[in-house]
Design the sequence.
């Protein structure tokens, strides 16, 4: 299937959006319906932008521009043991004060290291059971910066701080999503923010920004951009042109509380220190101010809990950190958004169940060299 999709993408280049695409027409037997199909298969098809037609009509409705989106099974999460966000989230007020403090710091490497050290201390000091302040005030970050416009548009319909007292008291009633590090990188990547018309970012209209992300003009302009010099980044322009990462994430975070666990937040900050450009650095800080950070709490029978009984948590390799982030999402009853396709595939091979959504992978590209430089 991947070879077929790759071939279609090759011939699609330079053509109008969705001119050539892969479509699967499912002809059910007897009384079977889409609930009998493996959710993992549907998830994989959706990520490949393969349109799945669960109809009896052998033709494709061209008005259907969005691939079939599967309903994610909640079997992996026991509702009776789902953790409370309101009870377990960190003191957002204290952490936001720390972000405000480092917001105006210089962005050279030494200053970033100092800023991250301060934020790491603030994160750990804000963990429960510390008494939380009310989250009813704005913490003064300059949200009008053009570099934040696209990210702010993607987040604007999520349930995000600062919370009113009414929202805070009903926080556990909202749907939840859990971001892993790869999803956070996609959200702040300079490539993901690209808009063909700078006036879209200056408009202050989230709907205009979101429309521009999905526009044909953006797709065409991305394909005309200078190539990345690094071979490992060569595929990014075509990938973003075919499927805007932020548009894919937006569909699943609107109306939801966006969670980030402590391990994901710390790992993300450490990546920003050395890899992020100046704009990506500020977007990363802003993103952490717009989510709910929770401790690394997992269910007793999760893979992370079983592994931690045998080895020290301080010696976690990246794979175990990724597993932990997934398990935190399960514990809080959240859909984990990730771009880590290889890890999800390994989970399926092991028969482990996670409620996860695969989105396009992106990199921090602001400082990446281009062929015209």
Sequence:
């Amino acid at each position: 299937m991947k070879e077929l999709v790759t071939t279609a993408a090759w011939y699609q280049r330079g053509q109008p959006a969705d001119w050539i695409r892969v479509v699967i027409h499912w002809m059910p037997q007897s009384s079977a319906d889409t609930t009998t199909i493996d959710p993992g298969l549907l998830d994989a098809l959706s990520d490949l932008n393969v349109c799945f037609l669960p109809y009896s009509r052998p033709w494709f409705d061209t008005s259907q521009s969005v691939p079939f989106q599967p309903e994610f099974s909640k079997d992996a999460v026991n509702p009776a043991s789902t953790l409370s966000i309101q009870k377990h989230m960190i003191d957002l007020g204290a952490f936001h004060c720390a972000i405000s403090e480092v917001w105006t710091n210089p962005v050279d490497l030494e200053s970033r290291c100092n800023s991250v050290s301060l934020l790491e201390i603030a994160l750990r000091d804000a963990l429960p059971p510390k008494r939380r302040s009310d989250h009813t005030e704005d913490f003064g970050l300059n949200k009008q910066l053009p570099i934040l416009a696209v990210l702010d548009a993607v987040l604007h319909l999520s349930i995000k701080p600062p919370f009113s007292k009414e929202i805070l008291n009903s926080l556990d009633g909202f749907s939840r999503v859990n971001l892993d590090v790869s999803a956070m990188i996609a959200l702040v990547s300079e490539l993901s923010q690209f808009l063909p018309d700078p006036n879209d970012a200056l408009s202050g209209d989230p709907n205009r920004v979101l429309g521009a992300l999905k526009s044909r003009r953006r797709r065409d302009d991305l394909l005309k951009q200078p190539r990345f010099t690094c071979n490992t980044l060569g595929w990014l322009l075509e990938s973003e042109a075919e499927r805007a990462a932020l548009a894919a994430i937006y569909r699943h975070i609107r109306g939801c509380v966006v969670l980030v666990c402590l391990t994901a937040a710390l790992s993300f900050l450490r990546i920003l220190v050395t890899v992020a450009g100046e704009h990506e650095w500020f977007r990363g800080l802003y993103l952490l101010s717009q989510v709910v950070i929770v401790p690394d709490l997992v269910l007793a029978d999760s893979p992370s809990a079983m592994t931690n009984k045998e080895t020290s948590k301080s010696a976690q390799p990246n794979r175990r950190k990724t597993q932990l982030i997934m398990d935190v999402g399960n514990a809080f009853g959240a859909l984990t958004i990730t771009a880590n396709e290889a890890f999800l595939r390994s989970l399926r091979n092991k028969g482990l169940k996670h409620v996860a959504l695969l989105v396009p992978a992106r990199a921090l590209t602001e400082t990446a060299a281009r062929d015209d430089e």
User: Anything to note?
Assistant: Confidence is low (pLDDT under 50) at residues 55-80, 311-316. Strands lie at 23-25, 51-53, 175-179, 256-261, 292-294, 335-338, 356-358. The radius of gyration is 21 Å. The longest strand covers residues 256-261.
